[in-house]
Write a structure and sequence with these properties.
Length: 298
């Protein structure tokens, strides 16, 4: 039987080592690197980079290891930047993240803004580094970079965040809530899967199946996150619970109730698993991640 706990621990170690190496360059100004490190190396689940690695392996074609690791690191850098900015007083004003004081609390607001900016730009420095590009197909590599840029930007995660802020203290329809979440949380999860698939030279059919998996997984992950915000343990999560209600956020539990939200998460997980039906055992990690996404406690 596939051991997800062991698999995640091994993959996280690879990713953490590579991320740390990107921040190990000589530091002209230690404060900015310290702030970047504070958030990046704070023990996140590394779900998005692991998804990228696991998808490439599910496709099964060889990929230059440095390219795959660079893609995985870049995704985590973009994700961490989004968390730092999301926690700022101008946005969600959170004081705890990944079990530590948020970046602006540990440093200050200006430093946190810069640390987020620096992680976002470092992601694209990593992707365009000679050691990452070496041995890759130029056209395919550009598609990989494009996936991340597009998913992070104003037609992806940033658009989702904007919609979320505008919708505070209003009541969204279910369709509008789904559209928001597909952008805010879903876009980066989808990009992580698509980047892994593209890097491994997936066929059109495999790419479409993996894309469907990622879309269901992204929404399932968000529904589970909304549920955790209602009934999760802040200690285990490393961040506060109950904040969605205080902030007047639109969530699945507020729209559908807790039981219907839990049923929806399970349905989405099943749809994600169904999308992988044509894959063999190489997709076991992806299947286990879908189950974990809805059963997790952090
Ligand atoms: C600031 C442009 C900009 C966007 C912010 C990601 C995001 C958009 C906001 C975070 C708000 C939030 C709690 C979204 C729910 C889903 C989510 C992204 C949770 C955090 O991701 P995890 O659970 O965190 O993978 P770790 O720390 O494990 O990486």
């Amino acid at each position: 039987m596939f051991d997800l706990k062991l698999y995640l621990a091994e993959q996280r170690e690879v990713i953490d080592r590579a991320l740390a190496a990107w921040l190990a360059h000589p530091e002209p100004e230690p404060r900015i690197v310290a702030a970047m490190r504070h958030s990046l190396m704070a023990g996140g689940k590394r779900l998005r980079p692991v998804l990228c690695l696991a998808t490439a392996r599910a496709v099964g074609q060889p990929v230059p290891p440095a390219a795959l690791t660079a893609a995985a690191c870049a995704i985590e850098m973009v994700h961490t930047y989004s968390l730092i900015h999301d926690d700022l007083p101008a946005m969600d004003d959170d004081v705890t993240r990944r079990g530590r004081p948020t970046c602006h609390v540990a440093f200050d607001e200006a430093t946190a803004i810069l640390a987020g900016d620096a992680l976002l730009t470092l992601a694209f420095e990593v992707l365009s580094a000679p050691e990452a590009v070496a041995g890759t197909n130029a056209k395919r590599w550009c598609q990989v970079v494009h996936e991340l840029a597009r998913a992070a930007g104003y037609r992806g995660m940033v658009e989702g965040q904007m919609r979320d802020i505008i919708a505070e203290h209003t009541v969204l329809t279910r369709e509008a809530l789904e559209a928001l979440h597909r952008l805010k949380t879903g876009a980066l999860i989808r990009a992580a899967v698509r980047m892994g698939a593209l890097l491994a030279g997936a066929s059109e059919t495999d790419l479409a199946a993996l894309d469907a998996y990622a879309r269901h997984l992204g929404l399932a992950f968000q529904v589970a996150d909304d549920i955790l915000n209602v009934k999760g343990d802040p200690v285990l999560m490393g961040k506060a619970a109950g904040t969605d209600v205080t902030r007047g956020k639109n969530t699945y539990p507020s729209l559908l109730g807790l039981a219907a939200s839990e049923a929806l998460a399970v349905r989405l997980k099943d749809q994600a698993l169904q999308a992988l039906a044509s894959f063999g055992t190489t997709a076991e990690p992806l299947r286990a991640i879908a189950i974990y996404a809805v059963n997790r406690n952090r």
